[in-house]
Amino acid sequence: MKNKKDMMRVLRTMEVMIILDTSGKKNGRGAYLCMDKECLLKARKNKGLERSFKMSIPDEIYDRLEKEFEENAHGS
Fold first, then answer.
1. Contact indicator for 45, 58 with CB cutoff of 8 Å
2. Of 30, 41, 46, which Cα lies nearest the Cα of 63?
3. pLDDT mean for each 10 residues of the chain (76 residues)
């Protein structure tokens, strides 16, 4: 277990969009991943986000999340 502040929040909005919530304060169902890109790749491989959000997540969403994740990791 890690502190939420050490993790990145992935959010499913009311409009059923999957986004990174860098503020950690947006409304919607959230799932937390560690800041390491490997965590996102592992979640993609084992369908962890699909289980958390109870929905199928297209490859395009994962590709966009990877880009956002990289931008946020370098911006920190």
1. no
2. 41
3. 80 88 88 87 93 92 86 67
C-alpha–C-alpha distance, residues 8 and 4, integer Å: 8
- d(C-alpha 18, C-alpha 25), whole Å: 15
Domain boundaries in the chain?
4-75
pTM across the whole model: 0.76
Burial of 4 (0-12, 13-18, 19+ CB in 10 A): exposed
CATH of span 4-75 = 3.30.1230.10
* Phi-psi sector, 26: left (phi>0), alpha (psi -120 to 50), beta: beta
Which residue's structure tokens are 């992935």? 10
